Each structure stands twice: as structure tokens, then as C-alpha cells.
Amino acid sequence: MRDPVHHPLFARFYERISVAAETRAGIAAHRAELLAGLSGRVIEIGAGNGLNFPHYPGQVSEVVALEPERRLRRSAVAAALRAEVPVDVVPGVAEALPVKSEAFDAAVASLVLCSVRDLPRALAELRRVLRPGGQLRFFEHGRAEGRALATVQRVADRTVWPLLFGGCHTARDPLAALSAAGFEVTGFRRLRVPEGGVPFPSSPSVLGTARRPADD
Q1: pTM score
Q2: Strand-strand pairing, 87-90 and 184-192
Q3: Would you give the end-to-end CA distance of the chain in angstroms?
Q4: Would you say 110 and 208 are in contact if contact means Cβ atoms under 8 Å apart?
Q5: Using one digit for the tens of pLDDT, what is the confidence trace for 79-124?
Q6: CA 53 from centroid of its chain's CA atoms
Q7: What is the pLDDT of residues 92-101, one digit of tens each?
Q8: 173 CB contacts (<8 Å, ≥6 apart)?
Q9: What radius of gyration, in Å, describes the C-alpha atoms of the chain?
């Protein structure tokens, strides 16, 4: 069967650039901050080549990691074998999570909400599978606050950027999308990746925590 997401050229490119960016762009430190303090059962969407896996703390009892792109999923499986916590890598898309409702204590979305095809549906699925009060940790590209870069983002999203970068859209607003999906954003900070140099359309980012309301 054909995979629902098939970007073999981008996957090959991403495998190389993402590993280099872990140190050169400081992304490894952001991943460690993103996952610090997690515990229990965790679901991660768009796991890519598994670069989050080494940063999961020992209190995590299980990670179910979804990755729809076949080449990246193979790399994620190899990374899962080296992880210090149990990681089960499975095929699947964020818009139709193949798991039971309210089955997880936490969810992780890391550099993936920019590329899901149906963002409201993906967030609705994450809310469904989280237990009431469960956390959603997010580290995502976001809409720039400055007018000039925001304009560049909109132009990029309407032209070549999604074609070149596996469906990525740089001008999405993850904070607004989370609130619209019924999550309570409990804390976040804005950052630029990489921190120095000329910013890319994908540089403006946000890292934070949201939760499914406890009385949901």
C-alpha cells in the first residue's frame, strides 16, 4: 500500500540536515527542554528520524511514536532501539491516530504541526487520545511577529516552500490553533532557530505546554 505521506527526496535531505542542526542550530537543547519532566504513557506525532527519543526522561513508561513517511520511519525504528525508554514506532497520520481515546498522559508535537494536512483535525485527535488534564508539549515553527518576515512567510507558503520541505507551512499560528482546538496553553516562550544569523521563514518558533482541560 502507498504511504499516506510520501516525500522520499525530502526525507533523505531531512535525515542529513536535521542531525547537523541538533548542535549547530541548538535544536537538541530545545528538545531536552521540551521533554523534561514527562512521565507515564506518551504519544508523539511526526517522530521523523527519532531525534526526540534520546531526550525522554526515565519516568516515561512508554512512547508510541507515529511517523507516516517510510524512510524516516525506518530511521526512527533504529533510533528507538537505542532509546533508554520503550519506544514503539508505528505508521500513521496525526489526523487519524490509531489508538484509543484518553489512553495517554502526554502528547508531543515537535516540528510537525507545520506540515500536517488538516491542523484542526490533528489537534482534535490529540485532544481525543489525551486523558483529561493530560499535557501536550509543543515545539513548532510559527508565524513571525514582524511584518516583513510574516510577509515572506506567506509568500513562501503559497509558492515553493511546501513543495521543497515536505508540506511545511511557515505562517501557521500554533498557539491560536491550540486554543481553537480546546487546549489550554499553560506556558510558552518564543525563540528563533537558529538563534543568530539571517532568519529563515521557518526560524520563528514557539516552545511550550498546553493541556486538555481536566473537566473535559
Answers
A1: 0.93
A2: unpaired
A3: 37
A4: no
A5: 999 999 999 999 999 999 999 999 999 999 999 999 999 999 999 9
A6: 13
A7: 999 999 999 9
A8: 142, 143
A9: 16
